[in-house]
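Good day; I would like, with your permission, to put a structural problem before you. I would ask you to consider whether the tokens describe a fold that such a sequence might reasonably adopt. The full record is reproduced below for your convenience:
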Amino acid sequence: MRGRTLSAGIALAVFAGMTVPLAAQPATASPPTATTVTRPIAASAAALAAPDISITNVQAHLTQFNAIATSNGGNRRAGSAGYTASLNYVKTRLQSAGYTVSEQYCSSCRYPSNNLIAEWPGGPADQVVMFGAHLDGVSAGPGINDNATGSSTLLENALVLAAQNPTMTKRVRFAWWTDEEQGLNGSRFYVNSLSATQRGYIKGYYNFDMVGSTNGGYFINRVTSTTAAPLKAYWDSLGLQPEENVEGQGRSDDYYFQQAGIPTSGYAAGASARKTSAQAAKWGGTANSAYDPCYHRSCDTTANVSATVLNRAADGVAYALWQLAVGGGTPTCTGGQVVGNGGFESGTTPWTASSGVITNASGQPARTGSYKAWLNGFGTTRTESLSQSVTLPAGCSTYTLSFWLHIDTAETTSSTAYDRLTVQAGSTTLATYSNLNAATGYVQRSLNAAAFAGQTVTLRFTGTEDSSLQTTFVIDDVTLLAS
């Protein structure tokens, strides 16, 4: 990951979205390191369809990068002999595996040198899923966590893909970037070299930067996005409770892809920011200490890597790659209803509602049973809400939010919406109804929630009334079906 002493224009992108959480006191949980790593049996059935990436093989690549640095002045900085040797190591392995490999000279880089691009010859050329990591390090040391871990993770995934040679539904492209540490220069050069049509071919870019930090966390870029869903699904299957990669926003090679309108995500384990007590409690490690104590230092060697964290990242990449691009690897749809107590007959749980909203009061009948959610109807300025957190499975064909809505109003206008009911998923408004939609009896409303596949979002109904003339919004039999 690039540091903070960059050009002024890029530095603004770094600090605009960065926070460094500090814990009040250290936690005592064990650090997330291990010498023997096995694939967790808690992984979902869908995850097991993807290959298990050998952590031993990934570590062997790390050893090679460390040896390259040792033989070339102690580092693998862009433009140096250590960088060139690193590129040749990756290139030779990929060519032997059958990849179409090209080097792209970055003439605008601070240290002019080559990006390495490798494409697997399968899948439609206009449907590309891209995986990238920066290959360069800083001059202070061999740069093993930053970023031989990301480079090695992608290299081993690429080799396994070639060895298994599955049927592809999308084209897979791997990239190893130069001059990231000097300001994301290699990836910026690549993105700027693409035509608008070529950019449109890339359906997602996934970035992997520092994925083996010894005091690491489990961070995902744009964790709630649809693009992140397969990465999150794998870590969710291990019970890791991943968080947004706040520290890394604008600081790695996904930045210019995002700026070009290409959907992005990726894994990270953290750099110089400090682990919080809450993170140490759920992930292990030491609170109030840096995720990577050797960040941009000479001690960033093979000893500065957690095998556990690295293994989980490598397997998560494989899971995502298989879900996104391999024939027969479409995420398994668990399907079914994801809303709990949609008919309100089992009390208020798991809903959160304004006082009295979930009720069996006789003033408005339920559609079925005795209970319903009755919002507003006071004829005075008032806001009431009803919400529930729901998790939508990935891999389904349809996601339909459906509910029955009865709107009763005393408003007499046929043109002005004075009182409103807003339906939201997260911060996205799915629909708005008002006194203008009043009707006798219940009307079924159906909304498309496919944009939230693989995510956990809050489903929220919010009713607002103005200062006079009541409007009642009565909701019953809420379902959110994935199929």
Summary: The mean pLDDT is 89. The chain has two domains: 8-325, 336-482. The longest strand covers residues 471-482.
